[in-house]
Amino acid sequence: MRLQIVTPDRAVLDQEVEEVYAPGTNGEFGILPQHITFLTSLDVGVLRYRAEGKDDFVAISGGLTEVLDDSITVLADAAERRDDIDVDRARVAEEAALEGIEELLPGTPEHDDCLASLRRAQNRASVAGISAN
Q: Does residue 62 sit in the same domain as residue 15?
């Protein structure tokens, strides 16, 4: 199967893979060869794929996934491969989001934005911390 991950800014990955597991808005889903055609939305989370017998990981921040004829296309709002994540930058973003959450009134759009930023930063830090197999 061919996995392509693209964001509005760049192509993140274009690789032959054996399987993919991704964070859907209704829960994690898996894709194996000859999967039925489908289109689904993505949540913030970890996309895991297996290529040449080894797992690798991408931090995903929303988007869509289309499966068609053994081709998987991920149109992500944001995506970073594990090895490309700047852990220090993720930690700074996490701290800034936590400060915003403490300072802002719960239920406001700004507070909700900080919660979403915190979730994305924690996801990036989590993916960066996954060891290679």
A: yes
pLDDT at residue 131 tops 80: no
Residue 40 lies in a domain: yes
CB-based contact 74:3 (threshold 8 Å): yes
Residue entry with tokens 């700074």: 92
Domain holding 111, by residue range, is 85-128
25 and 46 in a common domain: yes
CA–CA separation, 22 and 57 (whole Å): 10
pLDDT at 70 over 70: yes
- On whether both 92 and 54 belong to a single domain, the answer is no
Using one digit for the tens of pLDDT, what is the confidence trace for 94-123? 888 888 888 888 888 888 888 888 888 888
Same domain (yes/no): 124, 90: yes
Scan for tokens 């239920």, then name that residue: 107
Distances (CA, A) of 52 to 19, 33, 37, 49, 127: 10, 14, 24, 10, 20
**φ/ψ bin of 107: left (φ > 0), alpha (ψ from -120 to 50), beta (otherwise):** left
Q: Is residue 15 domain-shared with residue 48, that is, in the same domain?
A: yes
